Structures are given as C-alpha cells and as structure tokens.
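Question thread 4412

I'm putting together a teaching handout and wanted feedback from people who do this every day. The idea is simple: show students a protein as raw sequence, then show them the structure tokens that encode its fold, then repeat with a second protein so they can compare. Below is the first pair exactly as I plan to print it.
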Amino acid sequence: MDFFADFDFVDVLTTGALGEPGSRTFYIQARAGVRSVTVRCEKQQVATIAQYIRRALAHLPVPEGQPPRSVMQLAEPITQAFILGATALEFNNSADHFILHLKEFAPLSDEDDNEFAEDDEDDDEDEDDIPGAHARVSLTRAQAMAFCDHADRTVSAGRPDCVYCDLPINPDGHFCPRMN
C-alpha cells in the first residue's frame, strides 16, 4: 500500500497502548487539526524512539512549555494506517524542529534483495517515490520532549520486570529461569 502522510507541524505526536499488560498493542499517533495518522508499533520501538529523541535533545537548549497530559492520549477512532518498520530522525537547525520519518514494515522478498544488490546508485529518492506507506512528522523540541515523557509513562505501565531475570511477570505468575 502506498500511503504518505506529511505533517509540516503537528498539534501533538503521542503514543499509547490498548489492551491488558502482556497483550497490549502499541501505537504512535500524529495529529494536526482534524488530520491524524496512527501507526501500529512494538513497545520496544516506542522506547527506542523516545530514547533516541532524548539523546538528541540533550545537545539542545531545554524546550519551554509542554502540552497538558490530556492532549497526549490517543484520539479515537484508532485506525491503523500501517505497521511501523524503519524510523529516522533529523533535526532542522535553522527551523529549530525535529522531523520524524516513520516507514512501513515490509519484509524483503528474494526478488527485492537482488534488486537492491544490483541498484545501489539510486539513493536520491523523492519522498513520493518511496514504496510502501510512510509518514513524515515535523515537531518542536517541546513536543519532542512531551512525546518522550509520555512514551516513558506508557512503556512503564506494563507488567513489572522480575528483579532476578528482568523478564516480565505475568498477572498469573512467572517462571524465573534464575530460580532453578
């Protein structure tokens, strides 16, 4: 599916999870006015994106102001545009904002693998020429910091980790390999 969502600036970039701990489905959602795009992802992808943004923010002045927590909730209806594969983050120094690229997960077939091996010289692809679904989201440093804070709360709201093996503990118990 070729889907492209381009947000020059968003009202909010957020994340959330639906379901019970242990079987939650995670989403990243960008909203600008009445437009929105929701991308299904993994818990670890949310944590990694937040960690990467936080590392980039550490080299920049502290942003002022953040949206209220109520704005950071996922907006209904939650209709998934695609499943997240690759991500990229860039910072536009002159405009003082981040650009987050979200690309659809698409497993490579043997045909695709051979095509890339033979055709490495076409690296200057236009955004519209990229196959598969993708989204480009521009956000301020304050919005980026708010995303990181909310992502940390969302990720940590799951099952607690075992103090011995660091595996998640299910509500019905946990077999700890270190308690053998």
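The second pair follows. I'd like the answer to focus on this one:
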Amino acid sequence: MRYWLFKSEPSVWGWDDQVAKGEAGEEWDGVRNYQARNFMREMALGDLGFFYHSQKEKAVVGVVEVCREAHPDSTTDDARWECVDIKAVEPLKTHITLDDIKADPHLAEMVLVKNSRLSVQPVTPEEWQIICTLGGIA
C-alpha cells in the first residue's frame, strides 16, 4: 500500500463534499499537472491518502481511499489527462495544519513542505504515521 495527499480548495470541493459522495466516491478530476497525473497513474485500489484543504485553512482534514484506478478524466476530451476516484474513509479528530507539519522536524522533507503547489503528491509511511497520530486516528 502507498500513501498520498490530495489538495483541494474547500470552496470548490471540500471534505464535506467528499463525504457526501459515500462509498461510490468521486473522480479527482481537473488535475492539469503532469507530475500529479503521473502520481495518480501509480495509485492502486486501496491506497490511502490525506484530504488537504488548501487556501485559507491549509490543513489535513481527513483520510480517503483510492476506489478506482487511473482512467480518463471526464472533464476533458484531451487524452493526456487521467484521474482516480477516491472515497472518504474518516475525518481527522484534529486538523493538522501546514504550520504544524512545518514545525515537526520529522516532516521537514515532506513533499507538502518542499513543493506546496503540487495538488497530488506522495506521502511516506513514516509521514503517514506521524500525521495520523497527530490527527488522533489509528
């Protein structure tokens, strides 16, 4: 299993929107960055990811699961763009802000810290465990 982080502006698509999609999940569409797209191509069913609210909150707010592997993005006719589907698994009991992450020396090399603009990014198993612990989930 691999771990990921999915960033979204909550005013466009937030955690509550993701939860409302239930078990069917929703396409993580509209990504127009080759590196982010390539990360989605690497994802497998059952991989887990953090759902991150960008913009004002800048915080990890929940955990999602990949429920459909990479497929053509339905929001474009351009065959270069693919996406995965994700479903909500559980909210973090405590939201973990970008400032919290930057303050933890064990998370200093996290992609979120080094390349904060990338909308889909990998998370190491160690980073995953630290954030889950800080967020109050097992």
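Top answer:
Good format. For the second protein you could add a caption like this: The chain has one domain: 3-135. The helical segments are 15-20, 34-42, 98-103, 111-114, 125-135.
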